[in-house]
Amino acid sequence: MSSVVVLGTQWGDEGKGKVVDALANEQRIAAVVRFSGGNNAGHTVVVEGRKHAFHLLPSGILYPNKTCVIGSGVVINPHVLRDELRQIAEELGSAHAPLLISDKAHLIMPWHVLRDAIAGGELGTTGRGIGPTYTDYVERRGIRWADALNSEVFARRVREEATWNARLMEAMLDQYGLLASDRAKLKVEEALDAERVIAEYSEYIAEIMSNRRVHAGDAAEFLESVQDGGQSILFEGAQATLLDVAHGTYPYVTSSHPTLGGVYVGAGMRPRDLEVIGVAKAYTTRVGAGPFPTELEDEVGHHLRETGHEYGTTTGRPRRCGWLDLTIVKYARRVNGLDALAVTKLDVLSGLNRVRVAVGYRIGGKVHDTFTVHASDLEQAQVEYEDLDGWEDDITSAQHFEELPGTAQQYVRNMEEFAGIPVKWISVGPRRDQLIERH
Hints:
- By secondary structure, this protein is α/β, with parallel strands linked by helices.
- It is built from 15 helices and 20 strands.
- It has helices at 16-24, 78-92, 110-119, 130-138, 145-148, 151-175, 180-186, 188-191, 194-210, 219-228, 260-267, 299-307, 326-336, 375-380, 406-419, and strands at 3-8, 29-34, 43-47, 50-54, 67-70, 75-76, 99-102, 106-107, 214-217, 232-236, 274-281, 284-286, 320-322, 324-325, 340-344, 354-363, 366-368, 382-389, 423-427, 435-437.
- Strands 9-7-5-2-10-1-11-15-19-20 form a ten-stranded mixed β-sheet, with helices on both faces. Strands 14, 16, 17 and 18 form a four-stranded mixed β-sheet that branches.
- The protein is globular and about 65 Å long.
- It starts with a strand and ends with a strand.
- The mean pLDDT is 92.
């Protein structure tokens, strides 16, 4: 049976959590895997009027008959994970999926958050310490979950890294011209106090591992056994294609690989038969700095933000909103080898008499129908739009594609034609049941 991966096609926040939730309900799915990123990402699922927000836990945690996995490509803040587990226990009791944590996953330490707070502002990072953690990962200075399970090893590694980061911090504070008052505000000494960090993190880890539904170990070995048993795996992407550190709008990107390649590294095994689903919002949003050619700073942009509740699940930051850019979706199809699309928030466009979609860019006198990730090109690009008729109807109760207004149907077909792949799911509202599946 084929496994499936759900990936973002834009700058994130496309509604992947809802699509993952729908697919996780299928009987063939035995495990749901988060394979990259950290608590800089957020997924929201609405079930029976109740909103569940996740930052590290896979969205499949709502299904007690599945196994959820945090893969080796994820960076984990144990404080955040502990709080999420507490929250899901309050909401569901023990009626949630068991969780397997890869013992190869790296930990976000207090100095990572501190370094992000000092240096991450120019790129508009979330300040969660994600980038510095991946930096240490690559520089072979990271602390992994397996280290935290051995008290002697963990204490030694924390002391080593706290000492090294103290020296690094002096250079950073000097480089950024921060004063003694800034140092106090950032709580530098507290973040670098090795004994305090050892005690605090040991408490987090102990509480997490005392949960009878949480285990740590070789996630790849478990996933291979699921596959060998003829069951399917659902890989849950975080962030999106244009935030990929290799294939996104560099340097305004995340520090991991939320594209297809990240599945193999972040899960540690090869899915033998894999269906690749891209999630695209019916318009485009992004947070943080960086060029955004179709951005709208008028009443339409305000309509998209307020009607679509475009505020970050993790940070609460208002998202920048703009027209759908079909060149981005086509780019994501190529990078990820997408088999099909899921379109979300189509209902947000209801009430607009006219909708526009970007179909190309004029750069240096030439028109291109493909997206470029180079910031210098995007900053000077003139967008080539196609204007389409909108629709007034409320579509939130539609259960079948044919129930959508003709102009809404045409909007979806335009996406299919330009991207070259079918749209298999259409979300027309936030609830779990507001999802049209096309066969």
